[in-house]
Write a structure and sequence with these properties.
This protein is mostly helical. About 70% of the residues lie in helices and about 0% in strands.
Length: about 80
C-alpha cells in the first residue's frame, strides 16, 4: 500500500505537521498532569498542616493547634 501522494514536499510537510501536533499534545497532557499533581500536593500539605497543627515561628503568624485539640476544646 502506497501512502504517499506523489509530491515529496507535501509528504514531508504532512509528516512534520503530524509530528508537531503529536508532540504538542503529549507536552500539553504532561503539563496538565504535572500541574494537577503539584496542586494536589499543595492542598495535601495544607490539609496536613491543619490536621497536625503548625508550630509558632518568630516574626510570623502564631502557631495553630491541631484539629484534635480544637475539637476537644469544643466538646467540653
Amino acid at each position: 500500500m502506497d501512502v504517499t501522494n506523489g509530491i515529496p514536499a507535501l509528504d514531508a510537510a504532512l509528516v512534520w505537521g503530524g509530528s508537531i501536533s503529536v508532540l504538542g499534545t503529549v507536552g500539553t497532557v504532561a503539563w496538565r498532569v504535572v500541574r494537577t499533581v503539584t496542586r494536589f500536593g499543595s492542598r495535601a500539605g495544607q490539609f496536613l498542616d491543619d490536621w497536625y497543627g503548625e508550630e509558632e515561628r518568630a516574626a510570623f503568624t502564631p502557631g495553630r493547634a491541631s484539629c484534635w485539640i480544637r475539637f476537644a476544646g469544643r466538646a467540653g
